[in-house]
């Protein structure tokens, strides 16, 4: 229990002073009678009614004390905490060109590892809208920004490499991802672009796409996957019904991806194996966290009523006794 005006309790020491003043006054209001001889009254003791007279003063003083408590406004405080979380809008741009089938992430290929790591990244997010853009020689939205992580995971699991149009349109993919964030009202907008090659397709150059991202205040993290020297990926020849292993190109020129990250306030990463890629996404996950604020709410319930009822009851009892069994003469 709390009190709105606790300083009023300094009035409580006045109560015993008031009691003493009323007691002294009652002693001075004794009704007297004249007797020619007081000898016959020496053995007479005061009746219980006389001895109970100070009770009336005590009841009134106690009522006064309770009124002081009422004036201090006793209250019950109920506190609650409301957590406000501001999410981040994240676009995941995933390269699905044929070279992502390269098996240099032994025993898995690049696309399989990338999908598994991205799925784990999504599981670790909360209250963030996440979208998925896939690209090769062109780019398209697989999943628009959503909070439905189960739906996102389902469509991510269905992503496969494509043969046509082959190539790597990094600029187009970045511009397409940024366009999906154009109407975002969140303070933090992020693109995580994963590829294994250099930009060799598309109508938009990576530098142009980076300028668009910077203009819209979108931070871009770029990830280059694959071991130096690359691996091999299978290509099926439908005419001959044969499958060939073709050396996978590995982008040794990191300049474009570094420039994109630096221009937009992001970071460039390189991952040559599965653990390296997991570390990259773990780092981004720690850097891009939702802003959380807590707001404490306190609700007060007035509790003066029982104290007021007690004071009223004492006053009524005092009046009742004063006018009945403890009634004075004269």
UniProtKB/TrEMBL annotation:
InterPro entries: Aerotolerance_reg_N, Double_TM_dom, UPF0353/GerABKA_families, vWA_BatA_type, VWF_A, vWFA_dom_sf. The keyword S-adenosyl-L-methionine does not apply. Keywords: Cell membrane, Membrane, Transmembrane, Transmembrane helix. The keyword Membrane applies. PROSITE patterns: VWFA. Signal peptide: none annotated. Residues 89-284 form the VWFA domain. The chain crosses the membrane at residues 6-23, 55-72. PANTHER family: LEUCINE ZIPPER PROTEIN 4, SPORE GERMINATION PROTEIN. This is VWFA domain-containing protein. The lineage of its organism: Bacteria, Bacillati, Chloroflexota, Chloroflexia, Herpetosiphonales.
């Amino acid at each position: 229990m709390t009190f709105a005006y606790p300083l009023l309790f300094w009035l409580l020491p006045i109560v015993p002073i008031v009691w003493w003043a009323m007691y002294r006054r009652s002693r001075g209001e004794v009704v007297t009678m004249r007797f020619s001889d007081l000898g016959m009254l020496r053995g007479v003791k005061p009746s219980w009614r006389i001895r109970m007279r100070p009770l009336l003063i005590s009841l009134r003083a106690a009522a006064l004390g309770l009124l002081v408590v009422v004036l201090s406004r006793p209250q019950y405080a109920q506190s609650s905490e409301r957590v406000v979380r501001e999410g981040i809008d994240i676009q995941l741009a995933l390269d699905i060109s044929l070279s992502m089938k390269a098996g240099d992430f032994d025993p898995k290929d690049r696309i399989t590892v990338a999908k598994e790591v991205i799925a784990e990244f999504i599981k670790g997010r909360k209250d963030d809208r996440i979208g998925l853009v896939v690209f090769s020689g062109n780019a398209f939205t697989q999943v628009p920004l959503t909070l439905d992580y189960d739906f996102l995971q389902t469509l991510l699991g269905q992503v496969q490499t494509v043969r046509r149009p082959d190539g790597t349109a990094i600029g187009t993919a970045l511009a397409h991802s940024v366009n999906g964030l154009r109407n975002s009202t969140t303070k933090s907008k992020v693109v995580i672009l994963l590829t294994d090659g250099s930009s060799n397709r598309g109508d938009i150059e990576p530098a142009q796409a980076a300028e668009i991202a910077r203009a819209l205040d979108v931070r871009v993290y770029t990830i280059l996957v694959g071991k130096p020297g690359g691996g091999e990926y299978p290509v099926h020849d439908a005419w001959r019904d044969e499958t060939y292993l073709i050396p996978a190109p590995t982008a040794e020129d990191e300049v474009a991806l570094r420039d994109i990250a630096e221009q937009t306030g992001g970071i460039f990463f390189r991952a040559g194996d599965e653990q390296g890629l997991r570390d990259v996404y773990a780092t981004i996950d720690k850097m891009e966290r939702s802003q959380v604020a807590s707001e404490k709410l306190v609700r007060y319930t007035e509790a003066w009523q029982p104290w007021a009822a007690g004071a009223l009851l004492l006053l009524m009892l005092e009046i009742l006794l004063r006018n009945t069994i403890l009634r004075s003469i004269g």
